[in-house]
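Hey,

The postdoc asked me to send both predictions to you directly instead of through the lab channel. I've kept everything plain text so nothing gets mangled by the mail client. Protein one:
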Amino acid sequence: MILNTMRIRTILIGFTFAAAFPVGRAVAQAGDVAVARRITAITAVALQEYALGVSSGRIVSQTELEEARSFLDEARRNAGDLSPEIRSLTAPVLDEVSAGLRDLRPASELEILMGRLRHQLESSLSAALDPMPAESPSLARAARLFHARCAECHGEQGRGDGPKAHRLDPPPANFSLRDSLTGVSPLDFYRKITVGVAGTEMPDWERLVSLQDRWALALYVSGLRFSDAERARGDSILRSRCDSCRTFLSDLSGTAELTDDSLKRVMAGQMNGIPNDTDAVAVVAFARTAAAAEALGGDRMMEVARTLERTGEHLDQAVALADAGDRKAAVDAALDAYLAFERIETPLRARDARSATSVEGAFRDLSGKLFAGTGPEIARARQQVDSSLAAAERSLSRETAAGMLFGQSFVIMLREGLEAILIVGALMAFVVKAGAPGRKRDMGWGVLAAVGASLVTAVVLATVFRESTAHREALEGFIMLLAAGVLFSVSYWLVSKIEVRKWHSFVHSQIQRALSSRRTLALSAVAFLAVYREGFETVLFYGALFASERGAVGGSAAIMSGMVLGLMVLGAIYYVIQRYGVRLPLKPFFGITSGLLYFMAFSFAGQGISDLQEAGYIGATPLRWAPSLPALGIFPTTQTLAAQLLLTVALLAALAWIFWLEPKKA
């Protein structure tokens, strides 16, 4: 959990924790971000075409100049879709750039204007206008996409000799021409793939191809002008002369904007010079696609190193802001640091849950100190964060043995399934006591639906929610809050029937009709939510565990064996609860079951608010005196404790009504 005092996006309303969001504003901002990204991409392409068409104030290619003007007209039309506030920033700059094209001003001057606008828009919208892919692009997938969508014009090898090429005017680009493409970066390719090329057959792929795949295509096309032999030679040179350079090259965000010439200069600086042109070309050839998943981008330890480096940069910024007296911005920077770390939190938690919890606690303490601590307190808290991150790196760097994977798999399945089994098993026994054993089938359908929903969630997390860790935290947070509300309502109903007299009265009136349809739906919802909440976490953890087994002999088999054993143990626990739960005395049975449900509701409420805080949807006001008991869903913030206090007050009110006010009234 990270503390973020300035981003209050959610307000708890009413007894069931319904969340109200400024939806209209969020949708409007999301629309502005999308339009601004398109405008800046189109304008960047326009200025590239302009630089090819105009040199030293003279027109050298009327065709390129006309393409540039066409692109810029499209950007100005798109500006009409912006909100008034953002349009007031954008339209004047686009008008000035358009006038610059008319007056044949130097392209470098116009690029400076657009650079300033880009900075203003990113600051105003709090979003990157050239978003990076969530994961390292796959060259294999890009090759399939290129052959399916691009080869018809550009040819199988990207030489501009596809079956349709002879009918096109202008002809399609030849991506194998090394000299003419040294000034083109993967970002330039990404922008052209996104917005298309005016006046040609090159379409706008933004609505047809995902962000991840557009970057994959950009990286793939960037490598077509180099041979596999050159890439292999470049890899060998870097391994022997600058192994640390490989970590830099594994990060697409660091190399996407670099042209071949810029990349050559950067690598020469890091390597203290490159002996000859042949070696320089080989190094660039490898560096050009090194960030791909099949190369360095898919290296788990390099991802860990990159993530921890970014986390450290945000932490440095947070401490500097606190030293400067800007506490609010310091806490926001700490949130950014934690969100950067979350890229590796799930595999860390699957491998070493204690280490992940230690990092969370250290971040939580640092945020509290940034908000209201002294300089020495902030320094000590930062040191603790650094120590916990170093321990996390050691945990992730250890090669995982098959036996360890088996044990981790077993513990994940047992831990995540036990809570659901306890609740569902107890409720199955309850419906038997209620004289309606047939309702067990309804609850079984709820469990099956939850299993199916968990599988669907696995697909969704791999697509829709893969671009932001905050999305996963928010989804889990909402699930927990919804489950807390439902669990509390069923817990109240159970307590209301704890007296033998009330139970017999209930049985007498309901035995023929069993449970009402409304109550059946409530019990089914509990079964669904209990299983789905655990299924959600299980999907995340097993995905991380399978990702971490690379290099372990028999790793996948060990994980599957642990999963099967965990399911068998859970099945045995469920059978015992179902078989022997019906023989429990009435009062203890209802009391224990109701207490279990309330405890889960209490824990879910705290954890749900905590997850929404981690995602930045709810602010967090630290409380120095409050304890931190994550196992109980207790965290030292005003928001989490307020939600749990509300549940506690509701419980006391329910007990007062059931055991005092209602009997007194009767």
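Protein two:
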Amino acid sequence: MDVKRVIGRRRTIRFFLPFRSVEREKIQKMLEAARRASCVGNVMNVRAIVIWKDRASAELIKAITPPLGYQQMQTAPVFLLWYNETAAYQVDKWIDDLHRLADTRRIGMDAVATKAQIDRGLRPAFAASWQQAALGPLAFMDVGQAVAQATLVAYDEGLSTCCMSSPRLETVAGLLGLPPTAVPVCLQAVGYSAEQWEAGGQTVKPPFDSLFFEMEHGTPFTPDAAVDEELRREGMLTDPAPLPWRDAELAYLMRGLGLEDRIGTFPVRDGAAAQAQGDDRA
């Protein structure tokens, strides 16, 4: 499928077919897409652990469950825990990664001369800053790029996904045996959608010119209506939510999947009563 159409059809899906398992080869394709993502210095700090729900302990399922995620936690058959491996930035490894880029002619013109420049100029600077870089914005951006590519491949393979967070990610790290150098980033539910692909319509986003600027902050990058029309023809822009049949679809899904009419995964009580009892779940 054309990439613009994949982007246009992508939805955050919360209702999966719980009885339909996800093929191992499709998860592999998602992970390979993540492995092919761009990253600083080719350090490849992105990591993921595949969690098959039917093989996970009740303790693990409880730990990965986020506050907002009732439907996806009840129905998704697979979860991916994505994390940033900070050890990938360790200076000697980082320099070795750059040397390999030189050897494969991805940077520089002459491999020997390029590696000499790396050793003279970059090694001292990276030695002083690699630990900060490992937790810097670019490190997490690179994890995000990898997750985004995996997400698009999932949709191209007929799967659907939902990215979530959990207040218990550190507990999850312990249960999954992550090293202390790992920083959990997000949990991604994966499965076959029980919803129509439109999922009630394309999510409404803030106006284009309120997000993007030209030359300086506050000067909007004004979109061209002709380009918008082209993107509609190519499938990146589709009908916005809510489509007229969405309420009926949601009611059908809730009945068919036997779900409760709630979005939270934890019991929520009256806020004042919960605070009085020291309950932080409200």
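Summary for protein two, as requested: The longest strand covers residues 182-191.

Thanks,
C.
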